[in-house]
Specification:
Strand content: 15-25%
Distance between the termini: 72 Å
Oligomer: single chain
Shape: globular
Helix content: 25-40%
Order of helices and strands: HEHEHEHEEHEHEHEHEEHEEHEEHE
Number of helices: 11
Amino acid sequence: MYKNLAAAFAAACLLLSPLACPAQPAAAPLKIGFVYVTPLGDAGWVHQHDQGRRAVEAALPGRVQTTYVENVAEGPDAERVIRDLARQGHRLIFTPSFGYMEPTLKVAREFPEVKFESVTGYQRAANVATVNARYYEGRYLAGIAAGRMTKSGTAGYVAGFPIPEVLQGINAFTLGMRSVNPQAQVKVLWLNTWFDPALEHDAAMRLMDQGADVLAFHTGSTAVMRAAQERGRLAVAYHSDMRRVAPDAQLLAITHQWGTYDTERARAVLEGRWQSTDTWGGVKEGMIRVGDFGPRVPEAVRREVLARQQDIAAGRLKPFAAAGADVRDNEGRVAIARGAALDDGRILKMDWLAEGVQGRISR
């Protein structure tokens, strides 16, 4: 009887002025947590993910409440932070670092009601989705620009860890460079860390001492850009536009765009349709963009790079395809046979360095 009376009263409220009915409690905002592997700065990997967080807030005002924890080391510390966020009522948690994958999976088993987004991870669960971007597409485009702009024919590459994602980037950059400058060489220095500005800066200096007049990097700070600016060389900004710290040195920027994806995943939780998915988007999906050219880049080079970016978006250009000849590794073995292209499975398991790369895979 009481349920029927309540239902009748609620129905009557629909026909009356809202002032005649008691206010209904507003739904609590969705609490979303982000875990950052380095300190939050004004450029770089973490900066781009924080831009994604801000995009979620802007797109869903009043419906979400975001929190971030910065400078969280991979391993036990990450597990503690992720667990704390779940305990604090966060129902969607983004963990953007490869080393966060195992801690994320462990905490996810303890909190099955919480949704997790493992960025660069590859293992999923019912409440853990995986997402990554085709960074290598931007690297290939940057290689074209580097090949056009180098005078020494040598580029330097400061690399973090020898995981497939990093190898993809080195190889795509080299293939892009040699597509316009067939004799170009790329020297690689491994750091075995994602974030150490002093070490990154020193590596950049060493590579320039060895003849590199264009630099690229897969690490977390702006140190390589600063080194190129100091020496009057060129460098490819990664993650973010870095002209603020290298106004003369920036060749172009490969930027990561997370806002659209993060917002859609938050909206999916709000609407009760979130599912564990595996996403790998690139230029076509708007997750990777090349632009923000520096002042030393001629208009013809800009146009060429942007045209090739359109070709990638349209599927006309695949960085890991062998058109006129075999693609070989730097030990002479065929890596991609003439007329073939690597499928996603082989790209994701990449364990070789392309011809033209001076260096070995650090183990």
